[in-house]
Design goal:
This is Fungal lipase-type domain-containing protein. GO terms for molecular function: triacylglycerol lipase activity. Keywords: Hydrolase. The termini are far apart. About 45% of the residues lie in helices and about 15% in strands. An eight-stranded mixed beta sheet has the order 3-4-5-8-9-10-11-12, with helices on both faces. The chain has a four-stranded antiparallel beta sheet with strand order 2-1-6-7. It is of the alpha/beta class.
Length: about 475
């Protein structure tokens, strides 16, 4: 209880109009059950909100209950999940470092056994083992409508890896200029939880600067907790925004979102260091544009970054924003936030392409209903398991949990597992799936939609999807609607 009270009293919330913060760490099950039967949610020690806050809707209280329960479960499995992830990453990297399984035995005998180095350019995370591709598709040229989206997903996928891997990928595989790697501080987690990188793609006289945020680690329970958390802050003039994503980008306990801060090299905040680096690069080439991309949690940060730029009146920077490209993006804010972001993108002529592959679970959280605030905005570029795309207002089965969708989802998961063995013959060797990827496909037979969140299918849809669908963005459609 002391932890909860300390959090409530020491975090300055004057930067926002309203807030609802869930803290499941110390809540007991009985306390949680009582939430369902009392509309005075402000009295609950695990909910931080303005005094006297009342929630009359049982449906809303029930979803808060589910959110906190899910976070409690994730906290319980945090260490075992981390151990499992470490084992899954260690074994393939250990084998590669020693030249294969049979060489391990020889190296043991000869005393030359090599342990994998997590900082080397050869080390792969679980995401990297899922999809080992590093090269861009040589068939997709700069004038192809798919080009920027295909580049974006490769950057979003690469952001999961270490700095050495990213530098080698950008410089040797993409033949582009690497600019910066970011390892940034989260004031609330008191840890370096936010990573990303920046690069430059030059073609003749034109330059496109890219920013990519790292996404949700599949074996990090804290990342998954952020995805299911319903906490929010109401930012004046913007709307209600997911608290976890704001914290990951650089929200500060004592100051909130000041326009400028005194930088601390030991504890850099993602928003401020990226904004500064972006300004420095654009000063060298005022004609350059920049794009922002990310997968999963990284996709959410992709949306919040320009929102805070707009909050601070950074119109010069926003005028250089070519587009936002998100893959497997969770919901970020309420309807008002969506309207605000549409206005920002339309006013600055920026594209927004939100890609959703098939039954991917993450774009369908946090839960969206008439009682809740989290909404997607703009069009959904939706692709089925045959990589056939549609531009829709919302992804099908928008909240995932549906009795009618249950059988089709698991049938589709079985097809995706079968497809992993034949796609090589259909589309070529670069589409061959790893054993790690197929292992996730098997998990999909138990939790349909979980393997659909991986980067493999998002890379595939940008390469195999119809070029025509990549020409239309939410911004361009909005302009046409106005006309």
């Amino acid at each position: 209880m002391a932890t909860e009270l300390t959090t409530k009293t020491t975090c300055n919330k004057s930067f926002c109009k309203d807030y609802l913060l869930l803290s499941p760490k110390d809540v007991g099950f009985l306390d949680l059950v009582m939430l369902l039967f009392s509309e005075h949610i402000g009295n609950r020690k695990f909910i931080d909100c303005p005094d006297g806050t009342v929630e009359e809707s049982f449906g809303h209280r029930f979803v808060i209950f589910i959110s906190i329960l899910a976070q409690k479960i994730l906290h319980l499995v945090d260490k075992p999940l981390g151990w499992l992830g470490s084992a899954i990453e260690f074994l393939p990297n250990f084998s590669d470092a020693n030249g294969g399984f049979f060489m391990i035995l020889l190296n043991v005998v000869s005393g030359k056994l090599v342990l994998p180095n997590k900082e080397s350019a050869e080390f792969l995370t679980a995401i990297g083992l899922w999809d080992i591709r590093r090269d861009l598709d040589s068939r997709i040229k700069h004038d192809d409508p798919r080009y920027t989206s295909a580049l974006a997903i490769m950057a979003a996928k690469s952001a999961y890896e270490n700095q050495a891997y990213i530098i080698e990928t950008v410089e040797k595989h993409w033949k582009m200029e690497f600019l910066e790697y970011f390892d940034c501080w989260n004031d609330y987690e008191e840890d370096y939880t936010t990573q990303g990188f920046m690069w430059s793609d030059k073609t003749g006289e034109s330059e496109l600067i890219g920013i990519s945020f790292r996404g949700t680690s599949p074996f990090n329970a804290k990342d998954w907790s952020s995805d299911v958390d319903l906490s929010w802050y109401h930012l004046p003039g913007i709307g209600k925004v997911h608290a976890g994503f704001l914290k990951a980008l650089g929200l500060q306990k004592s100051l909130g979102w000041p326009k400028d801060i005194q930088t601390d090299d030991r504890k850099p905040y993602a928003y401020y260091v990226i904004r500064q680096k972006l300004k420095e690069r654009l000063e060298k080439n005022p004609n350059a544009k920049f794009m922002v991309t990310g997968h999963s949690l990284g996709a959410a940060l992709t949306i919040v970054f320009p929102a805070v730029l707009a909050l601070h009146g950074e119109t010069d920077l926003l005028s250089k924003l070519e587009g936002l490209y998100t893959f497997g993006q969770p919901r970020v804010g309420d309807k008002r936030f969506g309207e605000f972001m549409k206005e920002v993108l339309v006013n600055h002529g920026s594209r927004y392409l939100r890609f959703v592959y098939c039954n991917d679970l993450v774009p369908r959280v946090p839960f969206d209903s008439s009682n809740l605030l989290f909404k997607h905005f703009g069009d959904c570029h939706y692709y089925n398991s045959f990589y056939k795309g549609q531009v829709l207002a919302e992804e099908p089965n928008k909240n995932y949990f549906s009795i009618l969708a249950f059988i089709p989802m698991f049938a589709n998961a079985l097809w995706e597992l079968l497809r992993s063995f034949i796609i090589y013959y259909q589309n070529g060797p670069e589409y061959c799936e790893t054993f790690t990827c197929r292992g996730w496909r098997v998990i999909g037979l138990l939790i349909a939609g979980l393997p659909a969140h991986g980067p493999q299918d998002y890379v595939n849809l940008t390469r195999l999807g119809s070029p025509e669908l990549f020409k239309l963005s939410s911004h361009e459609k909005s302009i046409n609607d106005v006309k």
